[in-house]
Automatic annotation (TrEMBL):
Location(s), subcellular: Cell membrane; Membrane
GO cellular component terms listed in the entry, alphabetical order: plasma membrane
Domain of life: Bacteria
Pathways per UniProt: Cell wall biogenesis; peptidoglycan biosynthesis
The protein, known as: Peptidoglycan D,D-transpeptidase MrdA
Keywords carried by this UniProt record: Carboxypeptidase, Cell inner membrane, Cell membrane, Cell shape, Cell wall biogenesis/degradation, Hydrolase, Membrane, Peptidoglycan synthesis, Protease, Transmembrane, Transmembrane helix
Annotated family: Belongs to the transpeptidase family. MrdA subfamily.
Catalytic site: 328
Role this protein plays: Catalyzes cross-linking of the peptidoglycan cell wall.
Length: 633
């Protein structure tokens, strides 16, 4: 049987294979085309908005426009906080490929020392919102700006921006009133409105700057700009202008503030002056002060440490946070409390042998005049600051009645409207001591409280506030620093925050005022030396606050004590008596007697406020130098 030979070429089979492969290839092409089409549909339709935005961001950038901070003026329209043009160095970390290399270049270009480099790098690491510029340096010099401009091509994401920088023309005398602005830190950044503070590097840290931050800051704006591939702005597309902060007018009189600071003459202390009818704070000085401008651009660690370690505590606001025994300046208020509680009459005479003894107690609570003042009534007791009389009043009243009456004048409370960081001080009572120390109250402590010693603690602002209420014959007016915010006036008298002080007999005000007038103008007055040439009626009260307690038979000798253990000098006053225009509280730390070292300061300040330049002969300023020791506690 003959074998069948295979054909050389099977055409039919080849056609079948070709068709199968062609179909497979067609399916593969269709599948890939479908996938490509689906991807294109996803990118161009589903994700259209996302990629449009990304595309726009490649050439369109939204930049914040920080508002201009509001200016601050004193009551006479004098500028006390201004803005001056400056240049800042900023960096947007998201636009920098190698942050460490860029920082090294900047350090080399700017020629920073080791201390500056450490602060520089710390700021660069501070957490910032995405694509928001982080502030590296403030107040660049012209030389630094020029060097950065020449090297700009090497510094992507680094910008030099023009901004207004806060400046205080009178930094030391206004430091504690105004406070200062400083760089926004991470904690503040987390709590701030990101939109309103976009592009803003500074915020109020203390004082009025912090208290009125919202009004002073304003509202941020924005602009859309077209940029090239390097991020350089080509043109502006759209702008929403920022709203500048509101200007603030204070009740402070710069002239009076400067004088109060000069009167302290480098000594530690505080002077506060208030206009009784309105509650306007005319002067509020804490000495020593500090240069608040150093904090705006960022104070060096060395300088800040020096301020912190200074024994005179220049950063501490004595006017609103300093706690001092009230001393004998309590006596006018205590006299009113005794009259109101029917434990004494203005005519009652008490004999002072130089000391007071509690029943069944051998201890002598001494008058500052060792041999005593003899027969004293209320008016004379105030004029000579007789301790024995007020020991008697305190014992008759009891600590709780005395304390509750003192609350009516604002002691033991924060009563100011807008004074940032104000302290409440301490008004002692039985309940207070039991809660704080878990101890009972002793009768001897009531006597100490009766002359403003022991647990009593007041701030100079509280003392001036109480003096203003006293001058108003009990009408309560809340002290404040702002007179006008923008075009809106802050209307006095800020009443309804505390009830007015009411007495059963209005004549009792006169009885107390008469005694306070005799302090200044009476023959025996403890501060009679400041009454020389006085052209108006002044009511005053001197006080001396002990830094430490003396034993029963110990005698105070300032010469044997270290300076910081000596008594504080206090003086309160208001004038004119019939139409009070100013109420003053003066505290000079470790100065000694209030009559000799604080009264003259109050007289000089009152002269400056009440008398014209022609009338004001500044006689009281000469009296400040006198060392007339006529009063103790």
């Amino acid at each position: 049987m003959r074998k069948r030979r295979d054909p050389i070429k099977d055409t039919a089979r080849e056609v079948r294979v070709f068709r199968a492969r062609s179909l497979l290839a067609a399916l593969l092409v269709l599948l890939m085309a479908g996938g490509l089409g689906a991807r294109l549909f996803y990118l161009q339709v589903v994700e259209h908005d996302v990629f449009t935005t990304r595309s726009e961001k490649n050439r369109v950038r939204v930049e914040p426009l920080p508002p201009t901070r509001g200016l601050i003026y004193d009551r006479q329209g004098e500028l006390v906080a201004e803005n001056r043009p400056t240049y800042n160095l900023t960096i947007v970390r998201e636009r920098v490929q190698d942050i460490d290399a860029t920082l090294d270049r900047l350090v080399d270009i700017l020629g920073l020392d080791e201390t500056q480099v450490e602060a520089f790098r710390k700021r660069s690491r501070q957490r910032q919102r995405p694509y928001q510029p982080a502030l590296l340096m403030s107040d660049l010099s012209e030389r630094q700006i020029a060097r950065l401009a020449v090297n700009r091509y090497r510094l992507p994401g680094v910008e030099v921006e023009a901004q207004w920088l806060r400046h205080y023309p009178s930094p030391k005398i206004m430091a504690h009133v105004l406070g200062y602005v400083g760089r926004i830190n991470e904690q503040e950044l987390a709590s701030l409105d990101s939109g309103n503070y976009a592009g803003t590097h500074y915020i109020g840290k203390t004082g009025i700057e912090k208290q009125y931050e919202e009004a002073l800051h304003g509202k941020a704006g924005l602009r859309k700009v077209e940029t090239n591939a390097r991020g350089r702005v080509l043109r502006e597309l759209e702008r929403t202008p920022p709203e500048p902060g509101k200007d603030l007018t204070l009740t402070i009189d710069t002239r009076l503030q400067q004088m109060a600071y000069d009167l302290l003459d480098g000594r530690r202390g505080s002077i506060v002056a208030i206009q009784p009818q309105t509650g306007d704070i005319l002067a509020m000085v804490s000495a020593p002060g500090f240069d608040s401008n150093e904090f705006v651009t960022g104070i060096s660690y060395k300088d800040y440490q020096s301020l912190q370690e200074d024994l005179d505590l220049p950063l501490f606001n004595r006017a609103v946070r300093g706690h001092y025994p009230i001393g004998s300046t309590i006596k006018p208020f205590e006299a009113l409390a005794a009259l109101q509680n029917d434990v004494v009459t203005p005519q009652e005479v008490i004999y002072d042998p130089g000391y007071y003894k509690l029943p069944n107690d051998s201890r002598h609570y001494r008058n500052w005049l060792r041999w005593g003042h003899g027969r004293v009534d209320l008016e004379r007791a105030l004029a000579v600051s007789n301790n024995t009389y007020f020991y008697t009043m305190a014992h008759r009243l009891g600590i709780d009645a005395l304390s509750s009456f003192m609350y009516k004048f604002g002691f033991g409370e924060v009563t100011s409207l807008d004074v940032q960081g104000a302290s409440s001080g301490t008004v002692p009572s039985r309940e207070w001591k039991r809660e704080k120390y878990g101890q009972v109250w002793y009768p001897g402590e009531t006597l100490s409280a009766g002359i403003g010693q022991g647990y009593w603690m007041v701030t100079p602002l509280q003392l001036a506030t109480a003096e203003a209420t006293l001058a108003n014959r009990g009408d309560w007016v809340r002290p404040h620093l702002a007179k006008r915010v923008g075009e809106t006036s802050v209307e006095p008298p800020f009443k309804n925050t505390k009830p007015d002080v009411k007495l059963d007999k209005d004549v009792w005000w006169d009885d107390v005022f008469n005694g306070m007038e005799k302090v200044v103008s009476g023959r025996e007055g403890t501060a009679r030396h400041i009454g020389k040439g006085l052209k108006y009626d002044m009511a005053g009260k001197s006080g001396t606050a002990q830094v430490f307690s003396l034993g029963q038979n110990q005698k105070y000798d300032a010469d044997e004590l270290k300076e910081r253990l000596r008594d504080h000098a206090l003086f309160t006053a208001f004038a004119p008596v019939d139409d009070p225009q100013i109420a003053i509280a003066v505290i000079v730390e470790n100065a000694g007697g209030g009559s000799s070292h604080a009264a003259g300061l109050a007289r000089a300040l009152a002269d400056e406020w009440l008398l014209s330049d022609d009338e004001n002969t500044h006689q009281a300023e000469e009296l400040i130098k006198e060392d007339v020791e006529v009063e103790g506690t």
